[in-house]
Amino acid sequence: MSTTRHAIIEEIIEAVVEGEPEPVIAGVRRALEAGVDPETVLNDGLTAAMTSVGDMLDRGEVFIPDVLWSAEAMQEGLALLLPHLSEGASRSAGTVVLGTVQGDVHDIGKNFVGLMLSGAGFEVVDLGHDVTAEAFVEAVAEHGAGLLGMSAMLTTTMPVMSRTLQLLEARSLRSGVRVLVGGAPVTQSYADKIGADGWAIDATKAVAVAKELV
Ligand code: B1M
Q: Closest by alpha carbon to 129, among 153, 145, 146?
């Protein structure tokens, strides 16, 4: 990356960390005008900035409200970036039911995944956070969803994913829906263990895996 492009990415990171939407929007716009690959803006700019904010929170350098401001600023930038990430996306990729599992309120990453999936042409039915296994299963049946995406950010809430899969089986719905799981403590081996169809480490990979699954 040239020095100018590198400087723009650094500006985007700083603006997200500061939780300032206008400079994030201006930075994303400048990056696109300068011909920076939208995937680079997403991965090296917006995503890297949120990872850094999470690390700063862990070190006690920022507090929860700061993280929420940063997430909002990041989402403003993402909204501007999405049409460029999803060029060529068909509007018929299918319906995905998405949510953060019961007992878990972390929804920043899940929202990120939802925005990216909808940018890629999926109809996203977002159930929000603290979603029970029953609610996931009912939504899959109601919307005839081909894909179910579950997010968990706490080791204590991960078992809800497994319960949901069991309930899908019990209601004879499992064969009609592919199940994608993710969230910081969730791994490929956990996905394999509970019998999910796919796992993704981040929002970009989630779109790629979702497309493969459907
Ligand atoms: Co909490 N929290 N939190 N927290 N929080 C973590 C997750 C934690 C790792 C912090 C820590 O201790 N170091 C820790 C979990 C430990 C564990 O179990 N492994 C933790 C804890 C313990 C808690 C509480 C229990 C704290 C307390 O009250 N004592 C509490 C739990 C409340 C509850 O849920 N019942 C709690 C509360 C909160 C806040 C409400 C204050 C806030 C959430 C606000 C919100 O989401 N609206 C919060 C936050 C912000 C965090 C951290 C700092 C940041 C999470 C985040 O948004 N990251 C987090 C520490 C950290 O990650 N460094 C932490 C940015 C986001 C873009 O990334 O969410 O990882 P991420 O999402 C990524 C990927 O994971 C992936 O793609 C996303 C985009 O790239 N992905 C998927 C996510 N879902 C996916 C689904 C997919 C595919 C990919 O397919 C469907």
A: 153
